[in-house]
Amino acid sequence: MGLDAEDQGEDVPAAAGQVFADAVAIMARLRGVDGCPWDREQDFESIRRYTLEETYEVIDAIDRKDWKNLQEELGDLLLQVLFYAQMAAEPGYFNITDVIEGLNRKLVRRHPHVFGDQASAAAGNTSAALETSGIGAEQVLRNWEQIKIAEKGSVPDFAAKASVLDAVPRSFPALLEASKLGSKAAKSGFDWPDTDGVFAKLEEEIEELREVIPGPERNAISSEEQNRIEDELGDLLFTTVNLARHLGVDPELALRGTNQKFRRRYAAMESASISPLDRQSADQLESLWAGAKQVERSLPEPTR
């Protein structure tokens, strides 16, 4: 599959292909016989945590609007892709060319409103019946899902996959996994009809959590009680994530925003206090916190 030169974008340097080829060659050298001992020792499992770290560092750079740092972090994230592809190429699973060609075909196939007949050919005409003329972003997403279903086959293979929820990776961060599970279940009709239903469930989960927490007269909590508390708290968190879904809010971004807000306010408390915070009384800490909130509210709304 090839695209015309004008389709590739005027801002893409002609040297990008060579620079990328150099990066692939460097990665192969690092994994080679005379390469880096550390790189050669790594496997798919050992670098997973670095992939997560680099992904979150990309998000952090975006949140801070630090474009220079974002450039560097995107390079670090690209390194993860090159690393996985090189490790896969060594036993012959696939190589980086397979990865990119697969991505190119998918992008064309799932954008029939942009690529027209070329997309239909790439999709085996599965996109022919889709609405593609003058559509908006919501229809684009509906088309994407329809094409995705057609690619995987319209009839679920229950022998190979026991549940539609199996499509949600268990390795996702917990908030993202909960949101995706709720979305998948909702597509089958298993969902609250409106936000009132979610709020009612949230109140129910809060009450159930209260019921399993021992009273203040207890000095110790048994392991069984701790397990019940963890279970009920998990239910409460899951329901909260689904409330976010109903409200059209990304729970991960919402919590990240609150984390940043807490950082700012706590730092303001530290700056305003004439002595370390651990020497302040509860009332003094509360007063400092209220002051930090008041100051922040008088400032322009921070960008996330």
UniProtKB/TrEMBL annotation:
<dbReference type="Pfam" id="PF03819">
    <property type="entry name" value="MazG"/>
</dbReference>
<dbReference type="GO" id="GO:0046061">
    <property type="term" value="P:dATP catabolic process"/>
</dbReference>
<dbReference type="InterPro" id="IPR004518">
    <property type="entry name" value="MazG-like_dom"/>
</dbReference>
<dbReference type="InterPro" id="IPR011551">
    <property type="entry name" value="NTP_PyrPHydrolase_MazG"/>
</dbReference>
<protein>
    <submittedName>
        <fullName>Nucleoside triphosphate pyrophosphohydrolase MazG</fullName>
    </submittedName>
</protein>
<dbReference type="GO" id="GO:0046081">
    <property type="term" value="P:dUTP catabolic process"/>
</dbReference>
<dbReference type="GO" id="GO:0047429">
    <property type="term" value="F:nucleoside triphosphate diphosphatase activity"/>
</dbReference>
<keyword id="KW-0378">Hydrolase</keyword>
<dbReference type="GO" id="GO:0006950">
    <property type="term" value="P:response to stress"/>
</dbReference>
<dbReference type="GO" id="GO:0046052">
    <property type="term" value="P:UTP catabolic process"/>
</dbReference>
<feature type="domain" description="NTP pyrophosphohydrolase MazG-like">
    <location>
        <begin position="200"/>
        <end position="266"/>
    </location>
</feature>
<dbReference type="GO" id="GO:0046047">
    <property type="term" value="P:TTP catabolic process"/>
</dbReference>
<dbReference type="InterPro" id="IPR048015">
    <property type="entry name" value="NTP-PPase_MazG-like_N"/>
</dbReference>
<feature type="domain" description="NTP pyrophosphohydrolase MazG-like">
    <location>
        <begin position="42"/>
        <end position="115"/>
    </location>
</feature>
<dbReference type="GO" id="GO:0006203">
    <property type="term" value="P:dGTP catabolic process"/>
</dbReference>
<dbReference type="InterPro" id="IPR048011">
    <property type="entry name" value="NTP-PPase_MazG-like_C"/>
</dbReference>
<dbReference type="GO" id="GO:0046076">
    <property type="term" value="P:dTTP catabolic process"/>
</dbReference>
